[in-house]
Amino acid sequence: MQEIPLWYVAILFAMLGACVGSFYNVIVYRMPRGISLVNPPSFCPHCKKRIPIWYNLPVVGWLLLRGKSACCHKPISIRYPIGEALCGLLGVFALFLANFPSSWTGPVTHWADSFALFWLLLGIYPVAAVDFEFKLIPDSISIGGIGVGLALSFFPGGITPLESLLGALFAGGGLYLIGYLASKILKRDAMGLGDVKLVAGFGALMGVGHAFASLVLASFLGILIMVPYRMIKKEESKEIPFGPFLAVAAPIVYRFGDKFLSFYFGLFGLVE
């Protein structure tokens, strides 16, 4: 595997990313509406007729149909091919980020990091799309992250299976405890279970330390974005979706976690 050139794997990651993006489109549409992800098969959102598999090709299908459904000829939202293309680009970016500074003609050497960043970067799309609108985090992403993390722990160069398992248990359990105590103090729900399961997935992918670093960075990002937003909009919301900030913070910490932790603890004089 180590002799496969980066440019070749980049093409595969782009194609795989677009296919995953197509599935994430299904999650974004079906999951908040309580529709099974596997049954019924892909159907037209207008007339509910089944979509043939050749029209389901990521990006290509939408272009072939010129943005209209084949059955009832009604417009198909451009967000579908945009989501698929974005995930394809994120797949290539994940590979590049994991193997930097390798050249495009050099071999892929960090397989575990490549697949972990692929999962984390592409996960931003469904988490943000669903959580911002419906205040939900798809289990296929949060719980799926635990399975992916445990599987990748058997790859060379990643964390060990024991570290992955303990990371999921302590990161998810620790956040649940924090949310439980905060709920008792504030007399209202302070942390959703979706966030807990998402952080547990981060723990399985990168260990408990970096999972909590993602939590810290996500909190900073939330403050930096939501405070000015509320000042501009001059409106208050009872509930702020935290999942999108977690999803953005996780790949940053995965790639630059050690530097982030050194900077963070340095603020308190804990490291030189």
Notes on the protein architecture:
By secondary structure, this protein is mainly alpha-helical. The protein folds into 2 domains: 1-109, no CATH class; 135-272, no CATH class. Helix content is 66%, strand content 0%. The chain is built from 8 helices and no strands. Helix 4 (111-134) packs across helix 8 (243-266), helix 6 packs across helix 7 and helix 7 (193-233) packs across helix 8 (243-266).
Key words describing this protein structure:
mainly alpha; 2 domains
Task: Give the helix/strand layout.
Layout: H1 6-30, H2 60-64, H3 79-99, H4 111-134, H5 139-152, H6 161-186, H7 193-233, H8 243-266
Domain Prepilin peptidase A24 N-terminal: 16-95
Domain Prepilin type IV endopeptidase peptidase: 127-226
Protein name: Type 4 prepilin peptidase 1
